[in-house]
Amino acid sequence: MGASTGRLNIQVRNVEIDVYVPEVSTWIPQTFRGRVFAVGNGEEVVLFTAGVLASAIARTTQSICAWERDGKLPASTFEVEGVDPRIKRWYSETQIRMAQNCFRRLLRETFGSENAKYSTNQHFPHTEFFDYLKKHWNPTT
Question: Taking the domains of the chain in order of start, what are their residue ranges?
Answer without folding.
Answer: 7-136
